[in-house]
């Protein structure tokens, strides 16, 4: 069954993506990423120390935090700080962002310092974790460029590029880059994290209503690869 997508998008088409580098001047690296109606501010901040468990090991650390601003969703979302701790979803997402970025990191080349990548969702219209990874990479790469220009690194701590995109099966049709109305009615909802060279770093797929067939999984991965290529171009344009 075919299904009309908003904006007349084809099933294999990304939402319009823009990445504005240097959006937050006080951060070492930053970017504002827009994927359709989803907008996330990503910043990378460098600290000249490592967590206690890494002291003296000759390598650094990269980690991430994720949050949604109260007005980023239709109904006001309470800030984590007013609840005393991050909710389970935010914790899961920030760990995914951190793992994804470390997937292309050479932590020895970073030396004994920590890079914090903070992703704050301004507007959520589906795919906020993927936009955070894609935009977070740009913020991180800009922070690394800054450290290199300061002569603080002898070798790049980034071994490649990384981006993420959602995909899913909606009314029986595999589709790329779901917006919120699609995401909330999808039979299968997946998030794919991939390097610029096409290496899979993480695949999350949930089939809540109908089990996911192997054929559809293969189709989703192929759609994701197409999407990652488009996102990589946007990342390159932002870093140029
Ligand atoms: N969402 C929301 N409130 C929440 C969590 C999610 O409105 O507390 C919406 C938001 O549009 C988000 C979408 O649901 O983008 C899908 O959420 P999901 O947990 O699947 O994560 P995402 O797709 O954003 O990575």
What this model shows, in words?
The relative contact order is 0.18. This protein has a 5-stranded mixed β-sheet. Strands 7-6-8-9 form a 4-stranded antiparallel β-sheet, with helices on both faces. It has one domain (6-239): Ribosomal Protein S5, domain 2, CATH 3.30.230.70. It is 31% helix and 29% strand. It has helices at 80-83, 88-102, 107-110, 128-149, 180-183, 214-239, and strands at 17-21, 29-35, 38-47, 61-68, 114-123, 162-170, 173-176, 188-195, 200-207. The mean pLDDT is 96. It starts with 16 loop residues before the first strand and ends with a helix. The protein is α+β, with helices and mostly antiparallel strands and 240 residues long. The protein has 6 helices and 9 strands. Residues 73, 77, 89, 124-129, 166, 180, 183 line the site of uridine-5'-diphosphate.
